[in-house]
């Protein structure tokens, strides 16, 4: 018998022994019934299950029906990030006749878009350091949820492009300090501004808010993808760096409670926002939330009136917003979608006579220029984008954010994986994507025959009702007049306005 034959037989014997070992393991383990019934070959089922999302995304889904973002949108972001053309040939792939399809109304006398991006001045009557914000900014994403390289690239991109970067609730890190304007977000854990027992620390907050790079401060009430839910960063992930940034013990579970400890009522919330502004040296101060009920929104409006103070801005997050991890019950079944939440809050502020002092931001699947324009029509003054900015960094929507195995190095703390994310080139991608998307929004606004976002009206956005009928947002929804709630609340608002109280949230047992 030759040497090669012996080697081959040896390999076959080793392979047989290995398969036999796998078979014995499968037959004796009790976790998976499929493997006990089909030893060895049953592993094919789990292998195919593991690669199913990739097969679905790359080979099966059509360009226009992928979720959360379809292939067409992902390609637009990729092209704009790379600075290449993102125009399409041969016409739209969308079914423009289906009920629910929405479109913008162009003008017979379109204008030329402005050469410079118009800015939005954020800062009410109590603000002494107003901030001029872009129409589109980086939405809240914490260091810890994103890698150090991803945070740094976003901040460098924001610095080069002149737009704001929301820190997320994970605190101010060294990776945020690369020249980009910051919106410092404070959540229920008060990370970076907390006492040893987890309460808000005014002096720590004052010291960090004084940083010139911090342009606005935001109190996070809830997140669109998981409203009403706290979170836990496992102790194994609480490194020395994250512990230092968040003011928490290294190696111990880092808990974000579901509820704030600094307020219990709408009145106390508005008073706290007022106090935060003072501590921040007069910088714009506001809060972010996924809208709950009309009554709670009106309770906040009543609290603003009675306290005599208003937030400088409110960011509305939609239930379609993103997250690193959340139970499917919360992602799929809790919270108000952005369209309804934004218009509800806008109208409530208008009806209460408060809208002219407060700027509204919109956050939830903002990815293209039409998304910006649509939200401006629905009541926003500016928009924030998270997942689209991640895609500009190179995110491939692998849906692995919670596993620490992000293949693009964006949503991971694995040193090897995040090292693949080259900061200088990815920062340029973020800047290019932002510029191209805002430019398209301005071109759309000009095509609608108006010179600024302030001139957009609900008549300019229409929706198909049936195959042969449509209506504008002016017809579909009731838009309140300034101060209308204070004089004669209209039907659909009167009961909630009457029952809303600045001294408690919720319904207190009453039916909506």
Q: What features would you describe in this structure?
A:
With 512 residues, the chain is an alpha/beta fold. The chain contains 18 helices and 15 strands. The chain has helices spanning 3-28, 33-37, 43-60, 71-82, 148-161, 202-209, 240-246, 266-279, 294-307, 328-333, 338-351, 369-377, 387-393, 415-419, 423-447, 473-476, 484-487, 494-499, and strands at residues 102-104, 120-122, 131-133, 136-138, 164-166, 181-186, 214-220, 231-233, 254-256, 285-290, 313-317, 359-363, 382-385, 461-466, 469-472. The chain has an eight-stranded parallel sheet with strand order 4-13-12-11-10-7-6-5. It has a three-stranded antiparallel sheet with strand order 1-14-15. Helix 9 (294-307) runs parallel beside helix 11 (338-351) and helix 12 crosses helix 15 (423-447). The protein is globular. The termini are far apart. The mean pLDDT is 90.
Provide a brief overview of the structure.
With 512 residues, the chain is an alpha/beta fold.
List keywords for this structure.
512 residues; 3-stranded antiparallel sheet
